[in-house]
User: What shape does this take?
Amino acid sequence: MFEYIRGKLESKAGGYLVIDNNGIGFKIYTSLSTLEKAGQPGTDITVYTHLYFREEIMDIYGFITQEELRMFRLLLSVSGI
Assistant: This one.
């Protein structure tokens, strides 16, 4: 649904980023690698995203590189993960 989200990095916390895009704060779960590369709050950032939707769960996962997103999607395709 969302290929990427671009905006201003509002905050970083254990396991997720908050990105402000035109007044909407997106909570995006991510990897430690992306957290380290994301920069400091207040900087512009683009993350490539995957919308995870199951029953009562709707989460956005995002990564700095498309390669990391592809690996995440590959892991999701493995049975039992």
